[in-house]
């Protein structure tokens, strides 16, 4: 009987995802690339439309939130309190298109920022679950 090859790299969980991304500098680069792509790529048009004229506030809040979410400093909680993600996103129309564009945009940003492939896969799975939970409209 043939032996199965281990084709999945192990995720190093001895250090935080925050550290694996590159700490503050790596996370900052990821968030900047994410929002730059949203502004540049027509594939993310519906997602961009949910954000209003300026992305500055969104950039700051995503950076602060992801810092704690990925195991770094809880900057969002320190500044704004509990994230209450669903409640804070209710004013925005989020459907499957916006969800899918958010996840695709983050995937592209992670690839562009050279986030290790096993970590990308893990995070995209997690992000998809959160993004799906945020949906508040049909379609």
Summarize the structure in words.
With 139 residues, the protein is an all-alpha fold. The chain has one domain: Globin-like (Orthogonal Bundle). It has eight helices and no strands. The chain has helices at residues 17-21, 23-40, 45-49, 56-69, 75-80, 85-89, 96-112, 117-133. Pfam families: Bac_globin. Keywords: Heme, Iron, Metal-binding, Transport. Belongs to the truncated hemoglobin family. Group II subfamily. Its cofactor is heme.
Q: Helical residue percent?
A: 55-70%
CATH superfamily: Globins
Number of beta strands: 0
Shape: globular
Low-confidence stretches: none
Approximately what portion of the residues adopt beta-strand conformation?
under 5%
Number of domains: 1
CATH topology: Globin-like
Cofactor: heme
Keywords: Heme, Iron, Metal-binding, Transport
Protein name: Globin-like protein
GO molecular function, one term: oxygen carrier activity
In brief:
This protein has 139 residues and is mainly α. The protein is 63% helix and 0% strand.
Helices, strands, pairings?
Elements: H1 17-21, H2 23-40, H3 45-49, H4 56-69, H5 75-80, H6 85-89, H7 96-112, H8 117-133
State the main characteristics.
mainly alpha; Globin-like; single chain; globular; 139 residues
């Amino acid at each position: 009987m043939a032996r199965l090859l281990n084709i999945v790299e192990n995720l190093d969980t001895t250090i935080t995802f925050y550290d694996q991304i590159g700490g503050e500098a790596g996370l900052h680069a990821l968030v900047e690339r994410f929002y730059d792509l949203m502004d540049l790529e027509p594939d993310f048009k519906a997602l961009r439309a949910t954000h209003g004229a300026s992305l500055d506030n969104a950039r700051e809040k995503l950076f602060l939130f992801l810092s704690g979410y990925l195991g770094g400093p809880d900057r969002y909680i320190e500044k704004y309190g509990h994230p209450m993600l669903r409640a804070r996103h209710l004013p925005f129309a989020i459907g499957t298109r916006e969800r899918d564009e958010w996840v695709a945009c983050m995937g592209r940003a992670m690839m562009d920022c050279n986030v290790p492939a096993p970590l990308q896969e893990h995070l995209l799975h997690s992000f998809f679950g959160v993004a799906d939970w945020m949906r508040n409209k049909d379609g």
